[in-house]
Amino acid sequence: RLRVLSIERFGLGAHLAAIERLKVSLAAEGLFAEERKRRLPRLPRRIGLVTGNDAAAKRDVLTTIAARFPPVRVLVAETYVQGARAAVEIEAALRELCERGADVVVLARGGGSFEDLLPFSDERLVRAVAACPVPVVSAVANRRRVSPVASSAAG
Questions:
Q1: For the chain, where are the E strands, in sequence order?
Q2: pLDDT value at position 4?
Q3: Backbone region of residue 83 per phi and psi (left: phi > 0; alpha: psi in -120 to 50; beta: other values)
């Protein structure tokens, strides 16, 4: 026999529930709708890359781009990709790369703990990706599917 007086979320439960509520809310607004996704340019001239300073993800993306599209110009915006300031900084870097003429923007972040990846679930960043005039590709390593940042590019 078990008598329960109250139930409380423990650990990551509250964060996961808040992220899920945000995903549902943003989906209801149509931010993840298939028709909003933009086609990737067949041969981009300028690829914007938002990433951390001296990050393995940065090296991996640059190596892959150089191997597959040698003539393309890569515009790199190094910024915080974890911590309290990360979401605002990533949003600013995204805007800067669009202003610099990127044809597509890649948000790159290697793996990390749940807390390290929280900036990519920030509502301001999700809205910035949705409002971006060019396709945005999310290259955020994630063991769990908790980040509502979805690629705005048609695949």
A1: 38-39, 46-51, 73-78, 104-109, 136-140, 153-154
A2: 85
A3: left
What's residue 151's pLDDT?
46
Residue 22 has, within 13 A of its CA and on its CB side, a CA count of 20
Task: Look up residue 30 and give its two tokens.
Answer: 């149509």
CA-wise closest residue to 57 among 142, 144, 151: 142
Smallest CA-to-CA distance from 77 within 68, 86, 69, 67 is with: 86
Tokens of 29: 């607004």
Bridge partner list, 38 = 153
pTM (2 d.p.): 0.80
What whole-number distance in Å separates Cα of residue 105 and Cα of residue 102? 7
Report pLDDT digits (tens) over 30-47.
Answer: 999 999 999 999 899 999
| Cβ contact 40:137 at 8 Å | yes
Tell me, what's the pLDDT at 155? 42
Counting as low any pLDDT under 70, the low residues of the chain are 8-12, 142-155
Angle at 75 between CA 97 and CA 106, to 5 degrees: 70
How many CB atoms within 10 Å of residue 104?
23
